[in-house]
Amino acid sequence: MFRSALSENTLSFFSNMKRIYEIKKSANSNERKKCVKIQIRILNALLSKEKKIDNKLLKELGKHFKDEKEMKILADLKKINRTQEKILAASLFEELKKIKERIAEYKENLIAQRDADSQDVHELMNAEMNILNTLRKFLDEASKIKEKIEANINRVKKIEYKQWFRHLINGVAWINVHRQFSVIVEGLENIPEKGPVIIAPRHFHGQVDGSLFLSIIPRHTFFLRAVDWVDNSDIKLQRLIFSRAGEIPVNRPHMPKRQDKYPNGSPKSATKRVIDALILGQAVLVFPESRSNIDIRSTEEIRRDIVMDIQPGIFLFAQRAQEITGMKIPIIPVGTIYPDKDDKKIIEVNFGKPFYFPLHADKESFNEYCNKLRNKIVELSKER
Question: pLDDT: is 234 or 324 the higher one?
């Protein structure tokens, strides 16, 4: 009886647990303990798969999906590669966290049943069924995980990056920066390990800043990159390199267009890709000033002490992504201090504490938060 309950692979996680629960209710003390051991074994098998990658947990729990549309979602999940799975799992971080909390509570209950006296077992069993029903209800109704998976599978295919190539690019960026400068970094712990985040650094040096941040940010980061300045001779090579490293190209509205070479570089397309990345729980780097102090193509006088006006687009990204996910998206201000003498050769990078843009904001709020972000960057860019 116990063996059949464990070995029927066609049964879902929930069906297995509920069936064993029904057996356990009418069993004697010794048989009840056997049931509990089987349940713990099933739960441990599920959790061991979850350790490999969060998304495996959803696939296992998702085996109770029955209709054709839901089975198609599961089939699509099995086709996506490991990197895409990680991105997809990041987009479901809040749901996964809640599910894992309930499963941890479930496991504690089963362990308590295994070790409890007979008089306490029935109370624990009643609590067990409540936990299981809450978990199933959460998956079936409250979180709408199935719909979110389906929407995010399409997004994840559009922003896929090659992980090995990303590490290569980061290595090249590190060499490019450190052969010229020593870098001192503070506040890196303010960047969350998981979940969506917008990193908003000062844009001081047009040729160094990109490599600088690629080399020091510890998690994969998509970055909004202006491409209207790229020379024709460099376009194919740069597209090949940066598209695989997480670039989101954009033609700035006030600059000459590069639609022929970067067909996906319109502001509308770039905005969609930034928001998709945030929805999928990714980090996105945006230079909120939209231009740099030091630009080899500019004849303007260099002002090292100036942080330029913040453009409101960065808050539009946050607002739209928050509307879709229902999550607050942290914005990390970053200050940089470049050497003002050739012999100093030290760059200081200071990551500030996160702050949040309100979900519902009017035009005045955008102006207020632009000033707020600029003030934070100015403060982080001062000599200590």
Answer: 324
